[in-house]
Amino acid sequence: MISISVRYFYEHNREDLRLEVLAGENGMDRVIRIARIQKPGLALAGYLDQLHRERVQVLGQSEISYLSTLDPDVAYQRVSDLCSAGVACLLVAKGLEVPEILINQSVKHNAPLLRSPEISSTLIRRVTTYLEDVLAPETSVHGCLVDVFGVGILFLGKSGIGKSECALGLVERGHRLVGDDVVVIKRKAPDILFATGADLIKYHMEIRGLGIINIKDLYGVSSIRQNKKIELVVELVEWQQGEEIDRLGLDEHNYSILGVDIPYLKIPVRPARDLSLIIEVAARNHLLKRMGYNAAQEFDERLFDKMTGKGWRNEKPDLESVE
Amino acid sequence: MVSAQVTIVNRLGMHARAAVIFVRESTLFECEIWLEKGKKRVNGKSIMGILTLAAAKGETLTIEADGPGEDRAIEVLVGIVARGFNENE
């Protein structure tokens, strides 16, 4: 399970959220495991059962002013309970004045106490967005990713099968490279996969016979993109007699990455076969399918109608209304 | 599937030329080859993949081979890294 330390969270957001550490520096190694934050209002009211340790506790105006309405002894007890519960960290919003009791207790229990000038709603949204990103399940695959007509296509296949050459052909036709050789994939809730290239080799490619080239320098900034949702997985395979290859496109196959099923095509490679053209067509076909039009299925239905004596159907689905 | 750990010994680490020497050998084998450094795992037949590891002198890699000729592959590849990619320093 992925987690980050409070220190990591602090260091990566210090500037963006203008964070400051007020107390509890010794607890900065505590871990945050859950992206959703929690508001500890009920905990301050004495109900601690649902207090989640691995979540960031955000204290806004209501929590801070509620404390001031409590009897000092009760307030002491409640704050002490909150700070000693082992929560990842306490984060005060809106740059609010922090009651001394809260500072004392977080020092005592080593509970990191942070503060940001952002108002609660903005702070919660930004912290959640950041945490969802860093805590997202991640994997990396050997392949390359190209944005073809807005469809993110992940190419897989054995080393030397021609993934890079295929990607290069697509870039030449005006499509955009996201990453080659190493593609880092993150799952964003709940069934979306986002991919980027590996940092170090971003936009570089190794083409046999040419060596390492830089796509961004060769083709300009519009030939690349930072990240892209994966919508189609294409596996390039050697052209072999007798291998099971889809000739109709009636059956849909999926490829599972991080538990998310993505439409999958297996494309045989052979010299003189213009791969980038085939991939462009695959992307167009995918766009049609996404709009609800499946050429293979439509053709099959027409054939079936003919055979059952209904004659050719004339009506075509109205693509624009489907969209 | 067999795997072995090996430490980078040459001064420059696994730089571009070293990666080429490694890949030249690894692609001779039919089996799949993977390289691991910490959480990163890359295809051992891909130069760019290996370069993303940025494996410096003193760092330890795990080489994994799976398929026909895996034992021999590990033996050869571990040897290459352990000999510092035959660089004369």
What descriptive keywords fit this protein?
heterodimer; A: 323 residues; alpha+beta; Udp-n-acetylmuramoylalanyl-d-glutamate--2,6- Diaminopimelate Ligase, Chain: A, domain 1; Rossmann fold; 4-stranded mixed beta sheet; elongated; B: 89 residues; Histidine-containing Protein, Chain: A; 4-stranded antiparallel beta sheet; 35% helix; 26% strand; globular
Task: Walk me through what this model shows.
The complex is a heterodimer of chains A (323) and B (89). Chain A is an alpha+beta fold and 323 residues long. Chain A folds into 2 domains: 4-134, Udp-n-acetylmuramoylalanyl-d-glutamate--2,6- Diaminopimelate Ligase, Chain: A, domain 1 (3-Layer(aba) Sandwich), CATH 3.40.1390; 138-292, Rossmann fold, CATH 3.40.50. Chain A has 11 helices and 18 strands. Chain A has helices at 6-13, 41-44, 61-69, 72-84, 100-108, 120-134, 163-172, 215-219, 275-290, 295-307, 319-322, and strands spanning 4-5, 20-23, 31-32, 56-59, 89-92, 113-115, 138-142, 144-148, 151-156, 176-179, 182-188, 192-197, 204-207, 211-214, 227-229, 232-238, 253-257, 260-269. Chain A has a 6-stranded mixed beta sheet. In chain A, strands 2-6-5-4 form a 4-stranded mixed beta sheet. Chain A is elongated, with a radius of gyration of 27 Å. Chain B is α+β, with helices and mostly antiparallel strands. Chain B has one domain: HPr-like (Histidine-containing Protein, Chain: A), CATH 3.30.1340. In chain B, 35% of the residues lie in helices and 26% in strands. Chain B is built from 3 helices and 4 strands, in the order E-H-E-E-H-E-H. In chain B, strands 1-4-2-3 form a 4-stranded antiparallel beta sheet, with helices on one face. In chain B, helix 1 (16-26) crosses helix 2 (47-53). The longest helix of chain B has 13 residues, at 70-82. The mean pLDDT of chain B is 91. The A-B interface holds A 140, 142, 159-160, 180-182, 198-201, 204-206, 212 and B 16, 27, 40-43, 45-49, 51-52, 54.
